[in-house]
Amino acid sequence: MTTAPNLPQLLIEAKRWFDDALLAGMRQAGEQPVTTAQAAVFATLDAGGTTVSELARRIGVTRQTAHQAVHGLIGMGLLEQATDPVSARSRLIRTTEEGARAHRHAQDVLAVIEAALSDRIGAATVAALREALTAPWGEPPRVDAPAAG
Questions:
Q1: Which of 62, 66, 75, 143 is the most exposed place for a label (fewest CB within 10 A)?
Q2: Domains detected in the chain
Q3: pLDDT tens column, 42-54
Q4: pTM of the model
């Protein structure tokens, strides 16, 4: 018995489609290869810097996984650590000049990927998708699970 994928599964597949296209496009352009987790760090990094714990929360991975991704990017010269001005015990992760350049390039590649998607499924569909994903959804609902049957 085959069931239709649920919405979270479809969103995961859509993200994977974008990730695959982005990473391939960046490699094709001669950028340093990064992992999907490393790309997610860039996607969730605040302009002023972000702690590893906060990055892990945003990406939905363990702190150790986020730490590994961050330190790989530090080793590549794309990120750096700085003391958090609010808490001397915390370190902020932020982009280097090279990291900022690579991030701008990734944004340009994503624009090309989004244009290709518009060509494939229609500009109105992409606009509706963007509108649905940016609409305020509110807090996640608390629901009673249906009885197993």
A1: 143
A2: 17-134 (1.10.10.10)
A3: 899 998 999 999 9
A4: 0.83
